[in-house]
Amino acid sequence: MTKFSTFARVAALSAVLGTPLAAQTDPQPTLLDFFNINRLGTFIANTGIAVLRTQMELEYEYLSTDLMRGTVSISGVTIRPLLPYDQARQCVITVERAVLNTDVAKPFEVASEMNLNFIGTRATTACVPRDVAMGMRAAGIREIALDQFKVRAAYMYPTGETSADVTLAINNFATLDASASAMVLPRLNRFGPDDPAFRVMRAVVSLKDTGGWQTVSAVLPPNFNDPQTIRDIGTEAVTDFMSNGATRAVTAVERNFIADLMDRVQEFVTDPGEITIEAALPLTGIVVEPEIYNEEPQALVSALALEARTTPLARAQILDSETLAVLRAQDTPDPAALLEVAAALLEGRGVPQTPALVPDLLAPLIDNPDTAAEASSLIARALEDSDPAGAYAFALVAAADGTGTAVSQLDKLEARMTTTQVLELQARAMEADATDPREVMAQTEDPRALRALSLAHYAGSGATRSYAMAYYYALMAQAAGDIAATTLKQEIESRFAARGDEVALAWSDLSAEIQSRALQDWVEGGLADRFRTP
Fold first, then answer.
1. Torsion-angle region of residue 226: left (phi > 0), alpha (psi -120 to 50) or beta?
2. Which of 192, 203, 196, 180 minimizes the C-alpha distance to 289?
3. 20 to 30 A from 486, CA-CA: which of 11, 374, 430, 457?
4. Global confidence as pTM
5. Dist. CA 203–CA 305, nearest whole Å
């Protein structure tokens, strides 16, 4: 009986396992899994590393790719490069972490950007030429330790501005920061395209001592530790360069720059701190023609208004405590001071960037006709990322007054809203506009004036953006015989095409209402007699 029961159980189990449900196996990877974009990114990165291994020894502990977010990181890197002066193969470079970031997560919106960041880099003295290594060892430097080496490059689509930033932080030695931005401007000669000019927007280099001068001065002759001696040597060397070997006259501006630079150098040697060379440029930048940088690069000192400073100009632009007192003021502060602080909060200029505070800070200025437009523009900028609809309401006010870049801001915000939202907010804005279109039309006999009103409302420049009012005035201008009004009316109508049934229905109802109102005002206002000519 026992043997029969065991046999029966085995048979039953076999029957169950033989069913289609039990016959399923572990899931197999799909083609989508195989061609996963991050897996492909890892393969490409490893292929590049394999190519590098033909020129050096290279090992790493971990590699991560996230191409949809534009990030590639590698950590625990050890490199042993092949160097002609390192026959003993003693050069070893280690990197704790290296990260490459791009703007792939938001492609082609306003800029193309790339960041390359090396953190915790170490290199033995065998990695530099032998004469340099000897000097380093004499100064007690056994290895080169970089806390950070970072390079950032960006190209701005709206302006064509190209910017670059570099940071080099050497542990217990110095930190070097450099930043520049410029736009390339085409130039022509009588034969065709010439070397380009550059509109320079920013140029600054800053060196901060973190123990480097103490290390270097220990191996210098005593005379080279004297601040006056170093000033004299530096003045002679820089003047010789500026005069191009005594073949060029040094201008007064250039001599003043040399004197200021040597003042900073002397201060640095006496009490090591920071030296900065920065271009004092207007907000619109300065144009450097090819004749300057090709034929006389020394003249860039004057062209860029270079200054030798202790710290960057950004330090001098920090808002003082008196200016920031408006944030804690109990009484109504000065409107100009409020606007200044609000703009600084938006940009992070001289104060921590805090756009969330701007709407409440400027709320008292919205009802003041003298400050409403500028305050609305700043509030719209503060809200554009978090509340597009709220920002749009304020941008309508700013654009109607012709403030700054409010028109382009309206376009940008509309791209993030539905058309019905846009129409509702425009209608609310027009409720606050006490202008009676019948009174406006009674003051002109030129149909082009009606077309100009339509265009103003359509763009939102000099008048509240309202597609409804733009359509109204376009109908009136067309009826008044303006030959260009028809195409403007068609352009307004095309704004609502191919946007789905909801928008089509909303525009059908709104346009019918506007057409009825336009016909009524045309007849009751006797506008046919006003605009009709023999």
1. beta
2. 196
3. 430
4. 0.79
5. 10
Amino acid, single-letter form, for residue 222? P
Beta bridge partners of 156: 111
Q: What b/e sequence results for 58-74 when a residue is b if at least 16 CB atoms lie within 10 Å of its CB, and e otherwise?
A: eebeebebebeebbbbb
DSSP 311: S
Is residue 362 a contact partner of residue 354, using CB atoms and an 8 Å limit? no
Of 472, 469, 452, nearest in space to 527 by CA: 472
User: For residue 363, what are the CA distances in angstroms to 369, 403, 409?
Assistant: 13, 18, 20
The tens digit of pLDDT for each residue in 502-531 reads: 999 999 999 999 999 999 999 998 888 888
* pLDDT above 60 (res 322): yes
Q: What is the pLDDT of residues 141-152, one digit of tens each?
A: 888 999 999 999
What CA–CA distance (Å, rounded) separates 372 from 361?
A: 13
Using alpha carbons, select from 459, 454, 493 the residue that is nearest to residue 474.
Answer: 454
Structure tokens at 311: 């710290």
C-alpha pair distances (Å), 107 with each of 95, 113, 483: 29, 9, 42
Smallest CA-to-CA distance from 418 within 521, 525, 501 is with 501
CB 296 within 8 A of CB 289: no
Question: What CA–CA distance (Å, rounded) separates 371 from 338?
Answer: 10
**3-state SS assignment for residue 265:** helix
Give the rounded distance of the alpha carbon of 267 from its chain centre: 36
* Alpha-carbon distance values, 451 to 256, 315, 408, 437, 467 (Å): 58, 51, 21, 13, 13
pLDDT tens profile 65-100: 887 778 899 999 999 999 999 888 899 999 999 999
- List beta partners, residue 185: 197
Q: Which of 303-312, 330-339, 455-464, 469-478 has the lowest mean pLDDT?
A: 330-339
Pairing of strands 71-81, 93-102: antiparallel
Q: Which of 8, 21, 91 is closest to 56 using CA atoms?
A: 91
Q: 28: which residues sit within 8 A by CB, 6+ positions away?
A: none
**Tokens describing residue 98:** 């290296």
Placement of tokens 């009588």 in the chain: 190
Residue located via tokens 């290199």: 123
Q: What is the 3-state secondary structure (H, E, C) of 314-361?
A: HHHCCCCHHHHHHHCCCCCCCHHHHHHHHHHHHHCCCCCCCHHHHHHH
Give me the half-sphere count of Cα atoms (radius 13 Å) on the Cβ side of residue 291. Answer: 2
What's the mean pLDDT when you consider all of the chain? 88
- CA distances (Å), 413 to each of 179, 358, 383, 420, 465, in order? 31, 18, 10, 13, 13
Phi, psi of 183, rounded to the nearest 5 degrees: -120, 140
Cα distances (angstroms) measured from residue 492 to each of 469, 485, 487, 507:
11, 11, 9, 11
Write down the pLDDT at residue 478.
95
Supply 81's token pair. 């490069």
